[in-house]
Amino acid sequence: MATTFPTIRANTRRDGDRFHRIRFAVASLATAAMILCLSIYGAGYYRMGLAERAESPLHPLLRPSGTIGLRMGMLGVALFVVLSIYPLRKRSKWLSSIGKTKHWLDFHVLVGIAAPVVVTFHAAFKLGGLAGIAYWIMMAVALSGFVGRFLYAQVPRSLNAVQLDMGELETQARELAAQMDHQSLIPEEVIAPLLQVPSRAEIRRMSLIALLWTMLRLDLARPLLVARLRRRVLTGSEKFTTLGGLLKSGHADLESVIDLVRKRSWLSTKMAFLDRVHQAFNLWHVVHRPFSVSFALLAVVHIGVVLMMGYF
User: Fold this and answer.
1) How far apart are CA 26 and CA 168, in angstroms?
2) Alpha carbons 99 and 101: distance in angstroms, whole number
3) Fewest C-beta atoms under 10 Å: which of 56, 267, 276, 291?
């Protein structure tokens, strides 16, 4: 039988996702290993006061202008340059044609986590003056980046990362509801807690903090509610091997129903919060960009002062 083009595209997409997971895992492990090694190697030095550090044999290495400290600063600058590529991708046809937006965002978040840690080691955990101001602005940028990544995940998208409108979401919800009507393995009243979300009126009255907390709470509760569904069907030994229903079981029919329930629960939540998420995402852009620009300017000033003072 000849292989169809949709099948080839699907296989290519799966291969691309698998390679991305491998690359991302390797990059994450390398980052964690570097942070762990520096933490162990310099633990004693970083706990010392400024006067004591001058007498430490590690001082020529770990101080901001030391052999390792200076290289941490260079690495920090390189990481921030890498961070700037992601927003540029949205404006560049060439960059936007390379890879998936989600894959780029994964690495953007990883580098956004690694960069502040690297800068902290460069500063040897002692921050003051202009560098201290730039550092805390950097931390505000990193924190707002976590919020932005969470909001991005709340906006339903198709496989090519195009945002879905409410009509498409309602069509998907009806299809999932129709499929669930044909299953008899798990009673509807047991599934109901997974589908409960605040009303549109309640969501409109929420503050931004309450909105973020409610979405986070629902996302964190979903795996626990799914595990409870599994436990109703599994035997005693199966409950143990699946860690109380948190892991997949060997029952194909049960996992098929669980998958439908999880998708419908996720979709119901996203539909309920969609309008407020768009508002919050627009507000996030207003806050995140000025912080990013301010940090970039202060970092350039800091580097300029270091070069003029001849610390290299």
Assistant:
1) 36
2) 7
3) 56
